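Model the whole thing, not chain by chain.
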Amino acid sequence: NAGVTQTPKFRVLKTGQSMTLLCAQDMNHEYMYWYRQDPGMGLRLIHYSVGEGTTAKGEVPDGYNVSRLKKQNFLLGLESAAPSQTSVYFCASSYSTSGSRYNEQFFGPGTRLTVL
Amino acid sequence: GENVEQHPSTLSVQEGDSAVIKCTYSDSASNYFPWYKQELGKGPQLIIDIRSNVGEKKDQRIAVTLNKTAKHFSLHITETQPEDSAVYFCAAESNTGKLIFGQGTTLQVKP
């Protein structure tokens, strides 16, 4: 099992450009998440999905869109990149969010994005 | 809103010493508290977790304690080793089922 994979690993954009980050999981998890990690701020939830075809806003959703057309994939889009979106982006997935051991979130290796 | 505060932000210890990281949370409805370890260049990985019906949980050299009255929980690492060097995140599950993460602690274990 590959677990959670992210594509690409690194990317440099110019202000105003668009891009899509791809997350894939092979654990048949219902829940998927996109976080951004910035120094001194921990992991902040951007958007999440509780199942195929569903998405919801997290803590910092502005400037991002997501789609979950297939259960195993969760895409994060930046329509018009800004320097404030320079960050490391992590995708995660979990079986459930019931507060039990089953809501362990499995993280991908991250995508380092720089917006100039 | 829901918030998790984590201290210290950096921690340096000698190999063999103990390390303690503390977190406080604001949502009294939280009842699940995981700890994640992030090694350089990798994603966070769950190392231990605790639920609100338990006050302490141990797994070899790591332990977590929870004080629901005071709304704080701590990670204890004993007999630290260089491979324990990493960034550690605490988290609390919100009443909406999402995890709220602390700011992270960079632990350096000096040989």
